[in-house]
């Protein structure tokens, strides 16, 4: 597996301006006396929030932190009179931040609200794609230079691998410093933690025809390749426990399987690619590989224990042990959610539809949607669940190929929700919304038209 460094990457055209703004934000945060950090609850939000925490702790600056699901009017009213505020993975796209009374610094990568003129470090302000080339954590890191592993984890958790643009500049810098390794290897999520049959059964990129979603078939497939994939005492090995020869056998067999499937040759090329490993955590399976680390962060955030995720990033005693127990619950709920989803997803023409109300928790419905690739998915997925207030939570996931063809789920959701009294937005490849229950049918009728309009416009 090749681990040779890639050729140095040239910085973006306005990189000097970006770094100047990063330094300005650094100096303002460093002058703060006791700021409130407001961060999003997903992996990128927790890692970016932890970067700010680490920066302040290094300087012995006291702080408080408030992790939230969405920055709405209620939250803005609560924090309106705070004298010092730092937003991470939030705030850049919200006009209401402009009305806050205190000093504000924003580290964000979402599209910018026209009226928001607060001090902000955001790639969109400098001609950089915040959906693919920088996340909240890497944005914060370029300014504060704390917790480098967390920056990479935030990017992986926000589906920004392989690294591009400024993310790749950061990767190359951290590789040179020995903080991260980026070997070319099997890319499937769960390489370190999942037994091999589960690794294949939950494969989504590439989707494995006849195997994905079928753990028993995966076990039979593995037995046909090598008996050594099973441990001598009991159970299956993980990919991380295979030796070099066993890994070659498995990757070769998967490549043949994909090549023999319809359209499989292109899919086979996606089997291997960059994976991100942290030598500092070589003896800690939950943190060693960025994909595993990102899932641990999502488990903490989506099961209402965001502080636990931040404590893990900060290396707090006993936090990892508690996180591992929560991760086991998270994986079980995901497994049950995906099993239900495979049996329940429906093709609604322009998109696939998954109704998870009453079955799948709203905290993981988006993750389940992202794991669901029936038939090698060629359409975006719309998944819904009930939130704690009884509203409809909509989570959508696309693919990089669809985005290259014109799909922008963030813009589409915003347009669909605006006339319905809901709120929606996000990135081109992944987005979310809240819709009043009595207007769900209107949403589902209007959304396909918006999607078709995007794709037609892209093809003109």
Features:
about 450 residues, alpha/beta, inorganic pyrophosphatase (n-terminal core), Diaminopimelate Epimerase, Chain A, domain 1, 3 domains, six-stranded mixed β-sheet, five-stranded parallel β-sheet, 18 helices, 13 strands, about 10% strand, globular
Distance between the termini: 42 Å
Low-confidence stretches: 1-5
Please tally the helical runs, counting DSSP H or I stretches of 4 or more residues: 18
- The CATH class assignment of the largest domain is Alpha Beta
Task: Please tell me the overall pLDDT.
Answer: 89
**Share of residues in helices:** 40-55%
How many structurally independent domains? 3
Output the CATH topology of the largest domain: inorganic pyrophosphatase (n-terminal core)
Rounded to an integer in angstroms, the radius of gyration calculated over CA atoms is 22 Å
Largest sheet: 6 strands, mixed
CATH architecture term of the largest domain: Alpha-Beta Complex
Secondary-structure blueprint of this entry?
Blueprint: H1 15-31, E1 36-40, H2 43-58, E2 64-68, H3 73-79, E3 84-88, E4 103-107, E5 119-121, H4 136-144, H5 148-157, H6 165-176, E6 184-186, H7 196-201, H8 215-225, H9 244-259, H10 264-268, E7 272-274, H11 285-288, H12 290-302, H13 306-313, H14 319-344, E8 346-347, E9 352-355, H15 365-371, E10 381-386, E11 392-397, H16 400-404, H17 409-417, E12 423-426, E13 430-435, H18 440-459
Parallel strand pairs: 1-2, 1-3, 3-4, 4-5, 9-10
Antiparallel strand pairs: 6-7, 8-9, 10-11, 11-13, 12-13
Helix pairs in contact: 1-4, 2-4, 2-5, 2-12, 2-13, 4-5, 5-12, 12-13, 12-14, 13-14, 14-15, 17-18
